[in-house]
Every structure is written in C-alpha cells, then in structure tokens.
C-alpha cells in the first residue's frame, strides 16, 4: 500500500534540499474527482500531491516539454534533475526516451509508484458504473476503487472499471527508478496480455475493416493522441503540416520541399495514413501507457493499433519496449531468426 | 475504364538495385513475359524502403505494393534486407489488422539470377490482386 | 407558434419532414453525435460530443477545383455547397447560442459565401436542458440559460410524456407546419408546467465564471500575467478544446494537389486551431505565441475579451466541452476566475 | 530555385523498344511535364550520332538535367552521364528510365507496355527534378594491410604483400603462426615434410621488415571501409616476454599443471607453461592463464623462479590496440566436422577412432609418438587400419552437403604412410567416389591402391563400435553388394572440413557474408573469387571453401595481388550518393546509428553525423529515421514520394 505521505515528504525534501529543480506529480484538479498534472517547485507545494486511481497521465510527456524548453533556451541541462512520479508504464516511457538520448539518466529522478493490486481507472467504464452520478474523489483500497459521490461512498472492484491496459499489464512495477513506493506485483496481471486485442483480432478481416472504417471516419485530427504521447516528441510530424521546425539552418528549398504524405483534410484515407504511420513509428517505443486512447475525444481505439505492434514485436522478435536503457531499438535492429516465411 | 476492359490492378514495386532490379533486367533479357501492372521504383536496398512508402502508395491509389530485394545473406549492404524484413513484417501485420486484404502487400526475395522468379512473382501478384478489385480502403478520394 | 407534441409522435414529425435531411443525436462507440436519422429518434442525450457547428462550418470545405495544362492559363471551377436542407434535432441551448456567434464571424466585414450557403440550409430544433447535461455546464454565468432559444429555430421542452414545442423563427414554423396535424395547442396546464420546468432548470446549480462582466477588462489588464504560463503548464497543445468548441472558427486554406501533369487539385478550407504550436509560426521560424501560456491566453481572451470587444458579447457559451474533454484538466472556468481574481 | 530544364531522350533501340512501346507517345507525354523543356526520340540513342545529339541538345536548349528512357542503367548509365558531363552539366543530373528490360521486352501488349513506359519515364523525370549536382568523394588510402590468420594462406599473403613494399600486420589467434599445415606430417602428392616446407616461410615472416606479427591476438572490432579500416586487435597476455625467452624448457620441467595438448589434438599433454611446437614463431613459451595455478608467486611461482632469463612476468596485461589499414585479407582456416555429430561413426567416444589430423600428429616425427604409429588405447602397433572417407561430407540429409575436396587425397596419403611405417599392416579405405583431380593426384591414388596394396571398399560405413579390444566396422561394399565387417585396431575418419570457429566470428566482426555452409562468401563465384562482398576485404584459404595447400597458396597470392593493386592508389573515388542529415529535424535518437550496417553514423553534439568515407548509401538509416531527418542524396524521401505519385498518376 502506498502511503501518500511518503510521496509528499520525498517531494518536499528534494525541493527543500535542492536535489530536484521540480517535481512532476499529480494533484486534485478543479473537475470533480480527476487528478491533473502538477508541477511543483516549492517545498510547501508538496501537500498538493495526490495518488489515486485517476492518476492516469503519463507525466514523462512533461520531461519532453522540459527538454524542449531547455533546448529553446539554448541549454543542455537545467542543473538539478527533475523528479517525476512514474507508474510502471510511465517509467518504461522514460527508459525509451533515455534510450533515444532525449535526456540523460542523471537529468531525471524517478519516483516510481507501483500499481499494486490495480491500475488506473477507465473513465468510460466508470461512467457506465456510476450511471450519471458525479464522483468527487477516488481512492485505492486493496483490489477495489472507492469513489465518493453525492449518494455516498461507492466501492467498485477495480477490475470492473480498470483500463484494459492495466488489466493486461505485464509490468506494473517501475523497474527503472531512483526510489519506489509500493510492492512489486509483477505477474498479478488480471487478464492475459493483449486480451482486448485478441478479442478484436478474433473477428474476420471484413469485420475488422468495418470497425476501423467507422473509427477512422470519426477522427477529427485534433492530434490529441500525438500531443499527449511522450514518444511523439518530433518537432515536425512526418505526416502533417502542423509543426515545422524552422531554424537558421533551414533553407528556402527545404521549406518548399516538405513532403505532403497526407493532406490536412480529416478524410478517412488521410486519417488512416496518419494513425497507421503513428503506430509504425511507435512500434517498439510505445509502452502502452494508454494516453492516446484516453485522450481521443471521439473514442478511436488507438491503443489497439499500438498494441498490435507491441504484440508482434513481443511474439516475433522477443522485444519488450522500454526494457533497458541500452537495449536495441525494434526497427533499427534484427535477429537472424526473424520471421521470413511471409516473403516469397 | 470501359466495361469491356478487365480490371487492371495498379502495383508499385520497390526493387532493390542490386538483386531484384537486376533480376527484372534478366527477365527482360530472357524475354520472359509477365503482366505490365507493376511499375518499378528502384531503390538502393530494401532496407531503404520506409513503411511510409507503403502507406503512401496505397494512399495514392495502388491496388498492390511489392517490395523485393536480395535473399537473406546476399544483401549488397550486408544487413539492409534484414532490417527491411522486420519493418515490412510489421507494416504487413498492421495492414492485415485493420482489414486490408493480405494479398495487397507482398514481399519477395529475387536475386539477380532469378529473372524467371521475378516474372513469376509479378504474375502471381497480379493474379492474386485481380479478384480483390480496386483498393479503396486507403485510397484518397478522387477529386469531384 | 406554441404547440404540444406527444413524445411518441416525434418520429411521425420527423417522417413528415420530407424536404429535409433530419439529423439527431445518436450514441455510437459511447459518443453522442449528430447522425442522419435512422430509426426512432432519441432525445435523451447528455450533450453531443461535437457541437452542431459542422452543419454550417464543416471541417473540410472545398472552395474550387483547379487545372492547369502546361503552357495554358489555369482553369478554376468554383464548388458551392449543395444538397438538401438539414433539420438538426436535439440542439442544446448553449450550442444554439453558438449559432449567432458564428453568424457574426462569417458576416462581419465580409460575407462568407460558403458558410452562408450552408447556414441558410439548416434549421436547429433545440431541446431545453431540464437539468445540466454535464458537470461542467456553466451557461448561466455567460449570459445563457438552459432554456435559451437564441440561435434555435424551434425549442422543445421535455414535459414528461410530451414536448412543449415553440417555433422561434419562420424556418421553425415551417418545420412545424410540415406536420401541423400532429401538434396540439397547449393547455393552460401545459403552459404552467413549462414555466415550472424552465424555472427549475434555471435554478439548477451550475459551475460558474465568477465575474463575467468584469472579465474583458481584467483579462486585458492581465495580458502579461505570469499566471498564463502557470495555468497552461500541463497543456499538451492538442486541438480538442477548439475543435469541439461550438464557437471556434479558425481555419486554414490549402491546395490539395491531385495530379501534376496536368497540375490539378482543389483548394480546401479545413479547421485550424490556435492551440497547435505552429498556428502562428512565421516562415522565418519566429513564433509570437511560442509557449502554451500564450496560446491558452489567446483562446481564453478570444472567448472572453476580444470577441466581447468586437461584438459586445462573450463568445463562450458555457457548454463545458473544453473542460470535460481536456486530457490534462485545463479548465476554462478555473482559468478565467483565477486570472480575473488575480487582476485585483 | 529556378525551374528545372529537363531533356527527355526516348530511345527506340531499333525495334527493341519501339515494337512494343509507342515511343512517340512516351515523348509526347513527357513533354507535358512541367519541367521538361525538350524531348527527342531516336532510333539508337547510344550510337555515336545519338550521343552527339544528346550533347548538342543539352547545349542548344540550355538543359540542366536529362532523362534517357532506354535500356537498363547497368548498360548505359555511364555512357549518358559522360555525355552530360561532356555537354557541361553535372553527370549526376542524368538518370536512366529503364523501358526495355523492365518494359518493352516483357510486355507484348503495346497499349499496356506504353502506359507502363510512361509511368516509368514520368517517375524518373520527377526524380531528376530534385537531383542535385554532385562530385565523387575522394578518400585517401591507408597504405597498410592486415592479414587475419597465420596459417599457410595468411603467411603467403602477408609475404607477398610485404615483398611489394607494403606494411602488413599479421594477426594470429594462437601462440604461434603455422596453422593447420604445421600439424601435418607429409603432404600429398610429393610426400615432402610439411614442416620443412613451412618453417622457412614462418621464419621469413618473423624477420620481414614490413611484417608486424601479432600472435595470441584476435580482431575484435572493425570500422571504416575500403582504403581506411580501423581494426581493434586484442592481444592476450602470454606472461612470457618472447624477446627474453631462451626456450630453455626449464619452466616446463617445474610446472606442476598438466593439461591436454590442443596442438597435439589431445593425444599428449602439456604443462600450463608450454611451447606449442619446437618450431613455433615467435619462438617463445606461453603461460596458459586458464590452466596456471594462479599467476601468483604465493600460489606457485615455480616457473618464474626457475627462469634465468627473467622472461616470465605475471603482471603482463592484455593489450587492445587500434590498427589502421587500407585492406584486409581473411585467412582464418578450417576446423574438422565434430565427430560428436556422427553417432553412426562412434560419436567421438570410441577409443582408437581418430580423425585425420590426429593421425597426422601420430605419424609426424615431431608428434606424440615421435612418428611411430601406436594406437592410443594400448600403445600397440595397429595391424588393421580402416580409413573412412566422406565422414560428414556429401551427406545433405544428415551432415554437410558439400565435398570436402582434400579427403580422397589425404586418405590415400595416410594409407601410404601407414604402410610405410607398418609394412605388414592392412589398410582399408571406405569411399563413395575417388576425386583426384589435380597435378599428380590420380597417379598418387593409383599407387596407393596398387603398390601399397590398400583395399578400397566402395560404400558407406553404417556402424562402428568397440568389441574385444578392437573396433568393429560394419559397412557395405556396394560394388560386390556384400556386407563388410572389419575388426580394426584403429579407425581414421576423414572428417569434413568446416569453416573454423574463428571464421564464423570474424565474418560477424567484419560484416562479410557467409555461404549456406558457413564458409566466407566470395563476391562472385567465378569472376571475383578472392574478394568478399565488402570492398577492401579479401579471402584466402580454407575459410572460403575446402581446398588443399597449392590452391590455398594460389588464392593467397591472388588476394595479395588485389591488396597491392588497391593500396598502390593514392586515393579512392567513392560514390557521392550517400546519406545526409537534416540537422534541424534530427533529435539524436541514434536509431540510424544502430541501423547503419557500416558504422558510418555517429552522434556528435546530439545530432547524427555521417562519415562520408564509410557511408555506402544503402538508405537503411533513412527508412529507420522516424523524422525523415536523414536521406540518401538523390534518392531522397521527397523523390520517392514523387515517384510513387508518378507511378499512380
């Protein structure tokens, strides 16, 4: 059981002693029970920190933001490290970022939090359970989540409202950490890995397409999936014209010769190209934090695409994303025994 | 296209310069006939084929995409085809996953000595694509 | 024109609207969205995920197509919106209030032919909110009301087994007269119940922007406030808040080239959005709204200051979508209150 | 950037193209392309007047790039690029659209063929629009070679290169050079003493002013490419200073540790401090770290105490050095196929069943028995000896598919040598076929059969096992159709030759290919038999394929000649079509570094940097980069994008 007091004290201590220039964690927001990202720089702010089943955000995104701010200011380092609260999946994201040299190990102080009996809540599943009743607070309690509502306390077995990815999580414990709270419950997985994916894949190709066609039609290209993803840290996205890093080195020719792989129109064909390319680019890098899926305002099951890549990588190439900082990259490496039967 | 003409699948064929493009040259020198549906784009190596190319070809209206290179162990650049094998496997699985017909994407190893095989690969591919009809899943909608 | 329509007759009304393509909220993949009617109409929706702004301002609008044969002058062919008239059922009062705001934007200095062509082709059948459909509703504090008829052509009020149907505009009257026989005249009891329902709706507690009248001046005074950066620290720069906003109207215009020999394609308008980092990116690489703070300020000030200065009303209509859907808890009510309060 | 002015030259190739492709239509369609300023068709574009016309048209029309739609670029790309240069434009702005091999010759339907030819041509025109003028990259050459492997192949190659005045580094894994040949007693077909032939060469290597010998050393890492390799060599510690060692042998007398002697293939034992052979080069003892009691005067220290020369130094450490060389010869030799793989032939566990190399040591004057043939189990002279050929060779179902080539000859030699030593003994040879192509080889085998009265039995041995102090060999004589049972005193297996373990490792380290059997792959089986697929790396000896000594020496000489030719040039020209980083887009993630097969990319200041001398332009980096931050020049993603578009227009 994680004691919130310990997390707060660690944060307070680190900020007071200057061991961290900021602590990124979770605090209660202004919207009911939901936690939101918190950026603490003063010791006295430590009491704002919370740890509950709505702490779904993968905060490593903000390490990326921090890096971009530093780079923009022409700095390589911000001095003391940034401390960050990280669940198992979040910590793996941090590992991938370090694997890709986005920052160095010493730039970050990982305060790991183990998802012990449970994981985080899936708002959509919860909404069905609460049936319109608003909750003002959420808490862990063993294998249950406890919600405070106007109609009193509501206790729900976690597995009924947990995010799919948490049910299937293979490593809820943040292996890479400086400090960790909570027990290592690796192997507690409540559903088989890729269970949701397997259910979807059990359909025929025709049915899968019908489903995806509807999903891709819904996409409004708000790019929340990309914006919320710590791995989508590119300054310019390969597939659209939303971002375009222009530096003093950028030539007029370069500006003129941007490849328009896809059009800006939110048409199905373009949405597919975008989302599939994103899935390819996340292959071997996505740690299944589920943020893209959660952020999508029109419920495109983006996780399934990424999950498909993760499953193939695991089963065919024995690859686990975010396993170690010095590990190989999925698409920049190969094994002699990689499958080749599909090739004529 | 008039009603009389049979449907002709459009194929983009990414051929590595050293093996498959040379193999297709050999098919030519040997005058082995095969359907004219595949337009070759010669790349240095299959390792240079970005999955984005596959997506883009389908997006621009290809009915089928072929990637062909040197046999494993024969890569002029030693490892390019190993890297390609992995990348292409992933994109193939992803296409299959969203429900694109398996036969729309194909990969083959055709060495410089395998002119007949090159012709066969194209013939088979066209044959497999015909029954599928035009690819409209990923294709950008036509201008109205 | 005020009438009573039994709920079970609503489908008959819809069926009688033969000159219209009727859209109503439908639940798909857990999302309420406007869809062409297909089976019995449902008006038990919370609020739709996306506002009905698409009917007049679609995400993609083709302006014209072009073709240029080498050595010849380019040929353009204007593409004007066409199609049947639309009747959109179940529009919430807040979204109704969005309509006149959009009308102003597209008809202020210049008339937007594309917008107007679509706009005159659509009629909105509103549904009063007997109770707030979302925990983040705040229409009352921005000059609206759960029973507002602003922007609507017809207003429905749920009186249990029947609707109180009120024509607001001539277009609304047309919709009702198309099936005149289905409607009954309201009794005094109906009128009384309507009053009671409306009074209760208005009395229902809501979240609120504290000093909406002071907001324009206070925001203006807070342009350089450090609060913007602080409040926007978690912002990920996605397009959810703006794309789902009933009054956000920014767009981009692109040429989508179809072929190069001869050069042909179409000029297309697509939604754009001030929260995307490159929205204000100059070709030189300079970005006047570099950080998330500047971009949040733009969105908030547009809603509560600039629009007010231009048109004498708040652009925000208090639907709460941007709050509910923000993946990282950015809350426009909280932001406005905080900045206004801080301005002293 | 002002608009390109591209010329398109459509070749009819007589009727080769024109018969099945509407060439006029191709030209017409190309003239509709925005950047095409000039088109021309001609019956033979590659003919003298055709080429002149290309040159003239470039000049007359102020073209800055050209596309020739004709035959495969392998045939005339150079021709037309030269023409481009002659006309004053850069040769890299000329591209070939292959509408013959890839179109007119394979499609009889003229309408369809024409359509495809247009697509091909259009895609190349679009590509050329974005081609940049470029100059070939000149790279200086390091005038030094490395030979890996100190067997006869390596020795020969090193001597030949050194004699041409080029510095050579010869790297050998063992404590001495000499390799397998040093283990042999006599060699066929002349039966001259192997060591007598080899020793002078070994000495020459040691004394040669242009040869630096690195024994007990292994190549760990190779970077760079033809002309400029950087090789990391790890030298194990021998704990004996070869310059001081007097090879007096006092140390072995006191060393308490006894281990099997690998140089004698386990037939004898040695001490922890030992000299592989009396003729070892360098002439020095070596202390086997793994066997020694502890390199510590407190634990033992006897050898150090007794060494008058003070040659033993327990503190000697392994050294890793980086050597810069311009070319590499790989001569890492062979091993024998493991008998443990062949349970039918005793699986290596039946006493008095030896392999060919063990038999060589047994009959060698310098071997365990000082040249007397005594069987290992009881040190008695064997009277019935069975030689089994093709043990592991020519057996695609169970073992190696290939013929090991030398076994027929050395088995005949073994039989003869045996008869010389034991005139009253009986020698039997099981064989499948006798392959004795080679000067004097067939005569040699005939003499073995006739003069030495060796019984050749055509057939395979199905089983052998120990019985009553003998080895019972059960086989079939396919010529008589009879089953044969022989109770032999000793059996000698002519085991298949396999690439040495070191060969497999070196192939990985050098990133040179291997064939299906694991031998090093030559660049072309006929025309480039001594080159590896990687420029600047050459092959010699049995690491490439089974071969005998004369063949090995010939190949080593050929490899040396190639090295000499390469290193006689001051600079090398390299294709400029190599990777280029867009620094603004690079985030320094390092995926390109990992993907690059040539170690040509490194991270510097958080950005990828391409080493122009190493990059081969394969594009693996480009397809791996998530940000399109790296591209191969003139085959950019932008160009491919436009080509895809053109193919589908």
Key descriptive features of the protein:
heterotetramer, B: about 140 residues, alpha/beta, Rossmann fold, 4-stranded parallel β-sheet, 4 helices, about 15% strand, globular, C: about 350 residues, 2 domains, 7-stranded mixed β-sheet, 4-stranded antiparallel β-sheet, 11 helices, 11 strands, about 30% helix, flat
Gyration radius from CA atoms of chain D, angstroms: 32 Å
Oligomeric status: heterotetramer
Poorly predicted parts of chain D:
none
The largest inter-chain interface, given as chain pair and residues per side, is: B-D, 47 and 50 residues
What would the average pLDDT of chain C be, to the nearest integer?
95
From the spread of the alpha carbons, the general shape of chain D counts as: elongated
Distance between the termini of chain C: 48 Å
What would you call the shape of chain C? flat
| Estimated helix fraction of chain C | 25-40%
User: Which structural category do the helix and sheet elements of chain D fall into?
Assistant: alpha/beta
Question: Can you put this structure into words, describing what you see?
Answer:
- Chain A is α/β, with parallel strands linked by helices.
- Helix content of chain A is 35%, strand content 13%.
- Chain A has one domain.
- In chain A, strand 1 and strand 2 form a beta hairpin.
- In chain A, helix 8 (205-218) crosses helix 11 (268-282).
- The mean pLDDT of chain A is 92.
- Chain B has 144 residues and is an alpha/beta fold.
- Chain B has a single domain, classed as Rossmann fold (3-Layer(aba) Sandwich), CATH 3.40.50.
- Chain B has a four-stranded parallel beta sheet, sandwiched between helices.
- In chain B, helix 1 (20-29) crosses helix 4.
- The longest helix of chain B is centred in the middle third of the chain and has 19 residues, at 80-98.
- Chain C is α/β, with parallel strands linked by helices and 344 residues long.
- Chain C folds into two domains: 2-53 and 81-203, no CATH class; 215-342, no CATH class.
- Chain C contains eleven helices and eleven strands.
- Chain C has a seven-stranded mixed beta sheet, sandwiched between helices.
- In chain C, helix 6 packs across helix 9 (292-311).
- Chain D is of the alpha/beta class and 649 residues long.
- Helix content of chain D is 28%, strand content 26%.
- Chain D has 17 helices and 36 strands.
- The radius of gyration of chain D is 32 Å and the shape is elongated.
- Classes of the chains: A alpha/beta (344), B alpha/beta (144), C alpha/beta (344), D alpha/beta (649).
- Chain C binds chain D through residues 69-70, 259-263, and chain D through 29, 31-34, 122, 126, 645-646, 649.
């Amino acid at each position: 059981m994680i004691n919130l007091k310990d997390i707060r004290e660690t944060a307070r201590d680190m900020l007071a002693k200057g061991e961290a220039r900021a602590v990124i964690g979770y605090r209660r927001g202004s919207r009911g029970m939901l936690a939101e990202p918190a950026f603490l720089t003063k010791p006295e702010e430590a009491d704002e920190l919370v740890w509950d089943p709505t702490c779904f955000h993968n905060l490593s995104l903000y390490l990326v933001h921090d890096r971009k701010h530093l780079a923009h200011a022409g700095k390589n380092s911000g001095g003391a490290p940034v401390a960050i609260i990280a669940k198992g999946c979040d910590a793996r994201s941090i590992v991938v970022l370090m694997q890709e040299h986005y920052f160095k190990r010493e730039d970050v102080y990982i305060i790991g939090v183990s998802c012990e009996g449970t994981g985080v809540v899936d708002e959509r599943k919860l909404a069905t359970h609460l049936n319109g009743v608003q909750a003002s607070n959420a808490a862990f309690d063993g294998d249950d989540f406890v919600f405070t509502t106007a109609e009193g306390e509501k206790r729900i077995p976690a597995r009924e409202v947990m995010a799919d990815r948490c049910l299937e999580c293979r490593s809820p414990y943040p292996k890479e950490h400086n400090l960790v709270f909570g027990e290592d419950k690796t192997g507690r997985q409540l559903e088989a890995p890729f269970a949701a994916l397997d259910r979807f894949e059990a359909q025929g190709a025709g049915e899968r397409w019908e489903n995806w066609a509807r999903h891709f039609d819904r996409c409004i290209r708000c790019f929340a999936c990309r914006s919320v993803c710590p791995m989508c840290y590119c300054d310019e996205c390969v597939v659209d014209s939303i971002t375009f890093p222009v530096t003093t080195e950028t030539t007029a020719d370069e500006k003129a010769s941007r490849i328009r792989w896809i059009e800006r129109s939110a048409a199905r064909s373009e949405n597919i190209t975008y989302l599939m390319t994103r899935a390819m680019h996340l292959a071997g890098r996505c740690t299944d934090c589920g943020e893209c899926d959660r952020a999508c305002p029109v419920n495109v099951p983006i996780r399934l695409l990424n999950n498909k890549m993760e499953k193939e990588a695991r089963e065919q190439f024995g690859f686990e994303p975010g396993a170690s900082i010095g590990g190989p990259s999925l698409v920049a490496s190969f094994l002699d025994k990689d499958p080749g039967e599909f090739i004529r | 296209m008039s009603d009389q003409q049979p449907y002709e699948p459009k194929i983009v064929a990414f051929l590595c310069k050293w093996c498959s493009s040379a193999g297709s040259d050999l098919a030519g020198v040997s005058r082995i006939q095969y359907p004219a549906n595949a337009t070759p784009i010669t790349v240095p190596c299959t390792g240079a084929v970005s999955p984005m190319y596959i997506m883009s070809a389908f997006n621009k209206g290809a009915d089928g995409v072929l990637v062909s290179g040197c046999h494993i162990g024969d890569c002029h650049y030693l490892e390019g085809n190993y890297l390609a094998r992995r990348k292409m496997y992933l994109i193939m699985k992803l296409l299959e996953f969203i429900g694109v017909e398996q036969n729309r994407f194909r990969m083959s190893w055709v060495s410089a000595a395998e002119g007949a095989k090159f012709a066969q690969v194209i013939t088979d591919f066209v044959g497999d694509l015909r029954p599928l009809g035009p690819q409209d899943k990923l294709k950008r909608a036509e201008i109205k | 024109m005020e009438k009573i329509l039994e709920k079970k007759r609503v489908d008959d009304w819809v069926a009688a609207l033969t000159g219209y393509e009727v859209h109503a909220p439908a639940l798909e993949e857990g999302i309420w969205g406007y869809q062409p009617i297909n089976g019995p109409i449902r008006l038990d929706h919370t609020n739709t995920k996306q506002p009905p702004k698409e009917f007049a301002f679609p995400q993609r609008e083709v302006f014209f197509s072009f073709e240029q044969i080498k050595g010849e002058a380019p040929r353009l062919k204007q593409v004007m919106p066409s199609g049947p008239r639309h009747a959109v059922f179940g529009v919430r009062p807040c979204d109704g209030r969005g309509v006149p705001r959009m009308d102003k934007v597209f008809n202020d200095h210049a008339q937007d032919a594309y917008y107007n062509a679509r706009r005159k082709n659509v009629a909105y059948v509103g549904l009063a909110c007997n109770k707030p459909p979302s925990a983040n509703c705040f229409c009352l504090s921005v000059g609206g009301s759960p029973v507002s008829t602003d922007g609507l052509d017809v207003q429905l009020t749920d009186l249990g087994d029947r609707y109180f149907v009120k024509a607001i505009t001539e277009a609304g009257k047309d919709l009702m007269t198309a099936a005149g026989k289905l409607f009954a005249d309201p009794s005094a009891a109906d009128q009384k119940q309507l009053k009671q329902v409306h009074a209760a709706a208005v009395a229902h507690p809501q979240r609120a922007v504290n000093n909406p009248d002071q907001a324009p001046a206070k925001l203006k005074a807070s342009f350089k406030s450090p609060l913007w950066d602080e409040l926007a620290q978690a912002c990920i720069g996605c397009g959810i808040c703006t794309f789902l906003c009933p009054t956000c109207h920014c767009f981009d215009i692109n040429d989508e080239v179809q072929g190069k020999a001869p050069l042909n394609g179409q000029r297309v308008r697509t939604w754009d959005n001030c929260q995307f980092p490159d929205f204000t990116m100059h070709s030189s690489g300079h970005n006047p709204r570099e950080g998330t703070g500047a971009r949040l300020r733009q969105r908030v000030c547009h809603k509560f200051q600039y629009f007010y200065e231009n048109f004498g009303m708040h652009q925000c209509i208090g639907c709460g979508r941007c709050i509910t859907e923000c993946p990282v808890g950015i809350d426009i009510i909280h932001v406005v209150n905080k900045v206004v309060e801080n301005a002293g | 950037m002002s608009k390109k002015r591209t010329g398109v030259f459509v070749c009819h190739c007589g009727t080769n193209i024109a018969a099945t492709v509407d060439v006029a239509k191709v030209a017409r369609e190309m003239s509709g392309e925005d950047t095409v300023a000039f088109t021309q068709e001609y019956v033979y574009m590659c003919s003298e007047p055709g080429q002149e016309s290309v040159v003239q048209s470039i000049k007359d029309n102020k073209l800055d790039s050209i596309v020739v739609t004709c035959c495969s670029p392998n045939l005339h790309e150079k021709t037309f690029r030269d023409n481009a240069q002659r006309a004053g434009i850069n040769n890299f702005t000329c591209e070939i659209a292959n509408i013959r091999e890839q179109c007119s010759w394979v499609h009889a339907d003229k309408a369809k063929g024409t359509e495809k030819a247009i697509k091909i041509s259009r895609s190349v025109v679009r590509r050329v629009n974005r081609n940049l003028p470029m100059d070939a990259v000149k790279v200086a050459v390091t005038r030094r070679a490395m030979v890996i492997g100190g067997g006869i192949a390596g020795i020969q190659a090193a001597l030949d290169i050194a004699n041409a005045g080029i510095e050579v580094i010869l790297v050998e894994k063992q404590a001495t050079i000499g390799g397998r040949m040093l283990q042999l007693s006599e060699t066929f077909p002349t039966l001259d003493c192997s060591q007598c032939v080899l020793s002078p060469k070994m000495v020459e290597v040691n004394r040669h002013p242009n040869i630096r010998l690195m024994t007990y050393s292994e190549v760990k890492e190779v970077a760079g490419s033809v002309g400029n390799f950087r090789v990391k060599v790890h030298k194990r510690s021998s704990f004996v200073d070869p310059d001081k060692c007097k090879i007096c042998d006092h140390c072995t007398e006191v060393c308490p540790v006894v281990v099997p002697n690998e140089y004698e293939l386990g037939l004898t034992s040695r001490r922890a401090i030992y000299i592989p052979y009396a003729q070892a080069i360098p002439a020095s003892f070596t202390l086997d770290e793994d066997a020694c009691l502890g390199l510590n005067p407190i634990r033992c220290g006897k050898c150090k105490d007794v060494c008058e020369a003070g040659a033993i130094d327990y503190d000697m450490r392994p050294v890793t050095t980086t050597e810069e060389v311009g070319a590499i010869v790989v001569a890492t030799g062979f091993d024998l196929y493991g008998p443990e793989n062949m349970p039918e032939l005793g699986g290596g566990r039946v006493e008095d069943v030896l392999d060919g190399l063990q038999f060589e040591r047994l009959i060698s004057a310098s071997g365990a028995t000082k040249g007397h043939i005594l069987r290992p189990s009881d040190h008695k002279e064997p009277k019935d000896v069975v030689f089994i050929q093709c043990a592991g060779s020519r057996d695609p179902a169970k073992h190696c598919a290939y013929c090991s080539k030398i076994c027929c000859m050395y088995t005949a030699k073994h039989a003869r040598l045996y008869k010389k030593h034991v005139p009253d003994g009986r020698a039997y040879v099981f064989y499948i076929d006798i392959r004795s192509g080679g000067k004097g080889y067939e005569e040699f085998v005939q003499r073995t059969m006739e003069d030495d009265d060796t019984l050749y039995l055509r057939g395979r041995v199905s089983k052998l096992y120990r019985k009553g102090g003998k080895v019972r060999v059960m086989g079939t004589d396919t010529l008589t159709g009879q089953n044969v049972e022989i109770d032999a005193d000793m059996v000698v297996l002519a085991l298949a030759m396999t690439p040495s373990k070191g060969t497999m490792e070196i192939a990985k380290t050098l990133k040179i290919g291997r064939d299906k059997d694991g031998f090093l792959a030559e660049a072309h089986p006929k025309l480039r038999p001594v080159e590896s697929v990687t420029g600047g790396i050459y092959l010699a000896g049995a690491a490439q394929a089974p071969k005998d000594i004369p063949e090995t020496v010939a190949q080593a000489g050929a490899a040396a000649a190639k090295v000499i030719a390469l290193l006689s040039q001051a600079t090398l020209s390299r294709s400029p079509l190599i990777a280029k980083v867009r620094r603004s887009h690079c985030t320094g993630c390092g995926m390109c570094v990992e993907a690059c097969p040539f170690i040509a990319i490194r991270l510097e200041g958080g950005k990828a940097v391409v080493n122009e001398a190493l990059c081969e332009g394969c594009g693996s980096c480009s397809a791996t980069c998530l940000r399109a931050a790296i591209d191969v020049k003139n085959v950019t993603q932008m160009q491919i994008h436009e080509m895809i578009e053109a193919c589908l227009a």
